[in-house]
Design goal:
- It is built from seven helices and no strands.
- Helix 4 packs antiparallel against helix 5, helix 4 runs parallel beside helix 6 and helix 6 packs antiparallel against helix 7.
- It is an all-alpha fold.
- The protein has two domains: 46 residues, no CATH class; 68 residues, AhpD-like.
């Protein structure tokens, strides 16, 4: 991306955090796939989610990862749950942390949401452990 939108410093900080959490491959794929139609959205999430929220000093990346997984699971955002389970390899959140987060989801957001999140996490763990040759 040649041009940096809006708040350039926040965008650059967000891009660095996004890369550190999701990995260069994921971010590079998202940038290459961006079109004129969704480029503003990519800029928004990089600046707002990653440059404003994830870059704040109050929580560690591990803590943000745990909170993010619980929220995504509670809301039923399956693709994002899988993405952020993979990201725990970079954030320091453990499988035990993920289990605890999903137990909270079961109580506060419902057993079906937690059941789905546990299933997704198990599939991702299998991929991460070399069990299945799924790439995503």
């Amino acid at each position: 991306m040649d041009e940096v939108p809006g708040n350039a410093a926040r965008y650059r900080a967000g891009l660095a955090v996004r890369r550190s959490v999701l990995g260069d491959r994921h971010v590079d794929r998202a940038e290459v796939a961006a079109t004129d139609f969704d480029q503003p959205f990519q800029e928004l999430i990089t600046e707002a989610a990653w440059g404003t929220v994830w870059a704040r000093p109050g929580f560690s990346k591990r803590e943000r990862s745990i909170v993010t997984l619980a929220l995504l699971a509670a809301l039923g955002h399956d693709e994002e749950v899988a993405l952020h389970v993979r990201a725990t390899a970079n954030t320091g959140a453990t499988r035990e942390d993920i289990c605890e987060a999903f137990l909270h989801v079961a109580i506060y957001a419902g057993v079906p949401a937690a059941n789905r999140a546990f299933r997704i996490a198990k599939e991702v763990f299998s991929e991460m452990d070399g069990g299945e040759a799924a790439h995503g």
